[in-house]
Amino acid sequence: MAPHLLNFQPTTPSLSLGSLKWPNTLLHIPLVAPTNALRKFHFRCIASSRTNVDSTIARRSANYQPSIWHHDFVQSLNSKYTGEIYIKRGEKLKENVRRMLEKTSGSSSSLNLIDTIQRLGLNYHFDTEIKGALDTIMSIKDKNVCEVKDLYTRALRFRLLRQHGYEVSQDIFKSFTEEMKSGDLKPSMVKDVKGLLSLYEASFYAFEGEEILDEVQEFTSRHLIKALQGNNSIISPNLSKQVSHALELPLHWRVPRIEARWFINTYQMMQDMDPLLLQFAKLDFNIVQAAHQEDLKYVSRWWTELNFIEELSFARDRLVESFFTSVGINFEPEFGNCRREITKLNSLVNTIDDIYDVYGSLDELKLFTAAVERWDIKMLEELPHYMKICFLALYNTTNEMAYHILRRHGRDTLPYLKKVVLRYTFILISLGNEISKEASECLKNNNPDLLRWSSMIVRLADDLGTSTDELARGDVAKSIQCYMHQTGVSESIAREHIKHLISDTWKKMNKDQTAGVLNSHDHLSVRQKMLLGQVNVCTSMEMGLVFQTGRPKIGLCH
């Protein structure tokens, strides 16, 4: 009997600075000096005073609502799926699915199986098998083989190969667009909603300048909307649900773990559903969720010990939301430490963002910026009390992170972490257990494109979702308002322009995914892992805004 599927509840991982607390006292971990022998951190207390806060400064407030995720509630989370009986059952089911993959490897049916496995959130168990199957499909000599396939399979093949970094041409859809323009497209193809949906999803893997895929996306989105609004006899309720889901946000832009939770419900309503695969998906989801809950409890203790909620009451208390991002980047159970570190950094980023955007004066911000740039603990005495709290948390967290990486992997990453604090750190950690020289050099060389595209998507997507509220509380103009001012257009037109910029930036990231994808050991290269981390950051942002604003995104890229 299939195990009961739990409701997904965001949970947050973390790393602790320690449980020591003194009134009016700050904890300091000294800088880690690179040595051949491992050192222990020495803790010392720095007395602080609240008297250096200028009470004459007019402070703004963002009026943030308190978090609904109270610490006591988080600590009460519990799951039976940590038990050995469920782990063993999962291993047996995994072997059965592996045999299914091996049996279909290289055939067109393997495409459907790979897609289903990915959407159910199970692909991390079968990276080697999936790569082998796609290698076989890619190596087929007869390039016309994809032309004789139905539209659904042709588009699915293209999407999976592009997703995994293989070079495949948009020209496989050239005949489709030619028939589309000439009006010779068969009526049966226009009514093939499943095929159009597959083609629509594939179009989001376009590169810059690929006009065929741009035309495909415009055509399929238009006809899919018509299918929803027209005669429902040509589309089943379950397929209608999938079309609405895709038009709201394409698969490529969704957080895999949240998509898995949604697709499990959808998959069990499909006529070709495999009971064994569904059972494994439900069990694995609950096992992974149990790991996430433990991560969340750990990071909640860290956050509570920092006491930012009281000490920096003007800032957001959004620990669970920060954890949501970390799950989007690395959801696999073995990356618990990664999720914890990322959550800590995300939480600190939110606080620093509020200091700069809401609370701090210009003179205070100059001092704080100088302290971070110099990474100098001696500058504490020049900072107001609330900035001391924040800077020490940042300083200690980063140093502790570097210490653990040095201890576990023998690599001194502190110079890189200092240089790119809060900018590259989560990428470095997302490599999990492979902190290699290649990774360090990748960061050292600054790889501007690696972060530029994802940073732009995150920034622009955030402006679409929050700029109105931020302007109301006195923030500076955002990208939407800047474009309105420069061009004299309305806000709605400016928003459409920003959406196009987001779409174009995704195309740049898609192109990067084909660069240096696989190494000789059948594993993702360091660059590819970093890029995938950036893609996942963007998907977390996109989905977070959908949840936050409740606004549909149909026609997002048109």
TrEMBL record:
Record-linked PANTHER family: (-)-ALPHA-TERPINEOL SYNTHASE-LIKE, OS04G0344100 PROTEIN-RELATED
Species, as recorded: Macleaya cordata (Five-seeded plume-poppy)
Residue ranges occupied by any Terpene synthase N-terminal domain in the UniProt entry: 68-247
GO MF assignments: magnesium ion binding; terpene synthase activity
InterPro entries per UniProt: Isoprenoid_synthase_dom_sf, Terpene_cyclase_plant_C1, Terpene_synth_N, Terpene_synth_N_sf, Terpene_synthase-like, Terpene_synthase_metal-bd, Terpenoid_cyclase/PrenylTrfase
Domain Terpene synthase metal-binding: 305-423, 426-508
Name of this protein: Terpene synthase
Entry cofactors: Mg(2+); Mn(2+)
Keywords: Lyase, Magnesium, Metal-binding
Record-level GO BP terms: diterpenoid biosynthetic process
